[in-house]
Amino acid sequence: MKREGFWRYATPPVSFFGIPLPFLLLYLAWFSSPSMNTFYIISAILGAFVALNYFGWNIRTLCQRLVSTFRGKHASGRPWWYRHFVETPRDWTGF
């Protein structure tokens, strides 16, 4: 039996308790100005990532949703001006 997309999820993103590993490097910013306010801000940012991951939203999902929002709902192979000026509504197939 052939499995489609076998290698697609072969390597999941590396995370530590739902925090993407590169974002843990934010604690390195704390060493440049070691104040408790900076530590609290960084911990709040990382806590937000943990909360989002708890509800099923991770960075990859958020980026995909953002990109799909910018792309829009209607996908067509023809430019908007062709659809607007040349085609009539009865020619539309609904795709």
Mean pLDDT: 77
**What's the helix count?**
4
Distance between the termini: 32 Å
**Fraction of helical residues:** 40-55%
Query: Based on DSSP secondary structure assignment, what is the total number of beta strands?
Result: 2
Instruction: From the alpha carbons, calculate the radius of gyration and give it in angstroms.
Output: 22 Å
Spatial order of the strands forming the largest sheet: 1-2
Q: Number of folding domains?
A: 1
Anisotropy-based shape:
elongated
Detail the poorly predicted runs.
none
Could you give the order of the helices and strands?
EEHHHH
Biggest β-sheet description: 2 strands, antiparallel
What structural class results from the helix and strand content? mainly alpha
Work out the strand percent: under 5%
Organism: Leclercia adecarboxylata
Protein name: IcmT/TraK family protein
Keywords: Membrane, Plasmid, Transmembrane, Transmembrane helix
Transmembrane segments: 12-32, 38-57
Polypeptide structure, described:
This protein is mostly helical. It has one domain (15-91). Helices cover 47% and strands 4% of the residues. It has helices at residues 26-32, 36-54, 59-71, 80-85, and strands at 15-16, 19-20. A two-stranded antiparallel ribbon has the order 1-2. A hairpin with a 2-residue loop joins strand 1 and strand 2.
